Amino acid sequence: MKLSEIGEFGLIKAISATTGKGKGVVMGVGDDAAVLTSSPDKVFLITTDLLLEGVHFSLEFTDYHSLGRKAAGVNLSDIAACGGKPTAFLVSLAIPPETDAASVKALYKGMVEQARTYGVSLVGGDTSRGETLMISVTFIGEVEERNCVYRHGAQEGDRIFVTGTLGDSALGLKMLKKGVKEGDPVRRHLDPTPRVREGGEIARRGLATAMIDISDGLIADLGHILEASGVGAEIHLPKLPLSASYRKHINAYYKNPYLLALAGGEDYELLFTAPEGRPEAIKKLADELGTPITMIGEIVEASSEVTIVGPDGRKFPVEQRGHDHFKT
Amino acid sequence: MKLSEIGEFGLIKAISATTGKGKGVVMGVGDDAAVLTSSPDKVFLITTDLLLEGVHFSLEFTDYHSLGRKAAGVNLSDIAACGGKPTAFLVSLAIPPETDAASVKALYKGMVEQARTYGVSLVGGDTSRGETLMISVTFIGEVEERNCVYRHGAQEGDRIFVTGTLGDSALGLKMLKKGVKEGDPVRRHLDPTPRVREGGEIARRGLATAMIDISDGLIADLGHILEASGVGAEIHLPKLPLSASYRKHINAYYKNPYLLALAGGEDYELLFTAPEGRPEAIKKLADELGTPITMIGEIVEASSEVTIVGPDGRKFPVEQRGHDHFKT
Lengths: 328, 328
Prior knowledge:
The structure is a homodimer.
Chain A: H1 3-18, E1 25-27, E2 34-37, E3 42-52, H2 64-81, E4 85-95, H3 101-116, E5 121-129, E6 134-144, E7 159-163, H4 168-177, H5 184-190, H6 196-204, E8 210-213, H7 218-229, E9 232-236, H8 244-249, H9 259-263, E10 270-274, H10 279-289, E11 293-300, E12 306-309, E13 315-317
Parallel strand pairs in A: 4-5, 9-12
Antiparallel strand pairs in A: 1-2, 3-6, 4-6, 7-10, 7-11, 8-10, 9-11, 12-13
């Protein structure tokens, strides 16, 4: 059945059925605003991301359920990057009226399912018809103020760490564009895992001086930390954590096996800096959570630049070139 | 200069320059999430609205600055309807790359200016290119939990009140469509005033049992209160507050002078119910704020229906027909 047949109120009714009243939710979907309790001694985190068909995703590659999981996941990743615990979320959708109602329900189901993994419920949003699918997700979280991790705390001598592996998502997108529809990199691209538990523990244990999630690629996001902190960085190429399936497939796409790990986007891993003496505590955390955390370089004196150190010890500076949505 | 020339980062820089670090803002634009302090003993309100070109507005009728003011205003209206005090907001925009950068700046300036009237600053958001202009605004507010006003508290015997005047915005839209570009109704349509102070005082003084803002039209929004509260309502047609300019122009558009006041949308006035004994306290509030507040009817036994009482005392029930974004 098309959305134009069940109508806006039918859709809202279907959505409301998927929402639960979570902890801290006084009033969820169904009033002028959602009403949430705030925890004493905690600060409140709020982040929002826009996903547009044809810009951020293609319905050729993703199904609606995965798209929903990813839309929630990328926002959860931002909460994780501050060391926060997610508490609630809102979704606004613009949808072409000829869309199947079942597809829209699968989209919500994906979002709600992803959020529920972290005990979070949908508390509000808005819907409208639109020419193309547009998803605007807003996540709310909380953290003790003294544990909140920003981008601006990195200091000379700090070590640089990254969770998980790099480049898989960008490789997955390349594979999808070549017609490959399966495999780990493809899954990583379509349904990335936000590092919510990792970010929360890194913050709670006071391990990081600065943290960000990798959405635009390692180099670009490290650049945000460097700019905010007024420091430079050296990244050791051979230390970059590459997954087995990345190593297996990358040669079919690129001569340089490090390129996508350095500059590919949408890994949604956490990148953080920590003082020199903490690798043991970080190793302990990695073991406890079962998530690899790898030291990939160090913070150097003020320059806001990234220098890559190759396998042979040769250094070469990197020109910053983030993706610009308005330039082509 | 086109947006495609200044680019996303140029735009973000221009936006950041318009944002201030307001009260309660630990970290605004520029990190993974905005960080806000929460007030002890208060609950947290959050609301979001989507405005799409061709659906919610036409660039033929509005300039970017007014559009910005309205995008912030309609969200402020939702915070007001809960009796809340707005504290911060986020904006996500999808913008065609060929848009003038000056237009986008005017849009932000309008939003920031509207928000600043209430001491609120922009703390985050997202931007992307898109085929048509899309504005997703999220407002945050706070209120003491015992003062928060919902839709579900109306009781039989309560009187029904409305702030300001009704129908002006819908009439203004009619006028715009006929090529009329000036006059009070047009201004009311393009740049409605959210009743933030009124909502806050109604809540603080404990005057209302239920409240909502009128975005879909009096009948439709009253319907939401009735449904949530499990009651019915009678509205006295001759009591509807109509502005002088509405009375002056309405005859050129409709035979029935009450139609737009009953069913026209986007008034962004507050509609609330109050126990029988409170008209004096409400009159005092209206006098203090200089805002008309008019009693237009009363809550009757359970039925979820609105009955209109005409000038001659004749009653006729109203069929609920809210605007559906997906049906045509």
